[in-house]
Design brief:
Layout (H helix, E strand, L loop, with lengths): L1 E9 L4 H14 L3 E7 L8 E5 L2 E6 L5
């Protein structure tokens, strides 16, 4: 199953860690997990990385 998890915190703060742990557990059970969070510094571009079998997409922080 493909699952998108949206977190309104920046990467490395608050609920991000809870969502990451839950996503990693789901990935162990053969689910495709994408975690969308706000980038701490990026203002213009989306970035993608793979962390523990989860695709992490960092969106630009447009509020600063």
């Amino acid at each position: 199953m493909k699952i998108l998890m949206i977190v309104f915190n920046q990467v490395g703060r608050g609920t991000y860690y809870r969502a990451l742990a839950l996503g990693q557990e789901l990935a162990v059970h053969n689910h495709e997990i994408t975690l969308l969070a706000t980038a701490p510094k990026e203002r213009l571009w989306f970035t993608e990385t793979i962390i523990g079998g989860i695709r992490l997409v960092e969106s630009p922080d447009l509020t600063r």
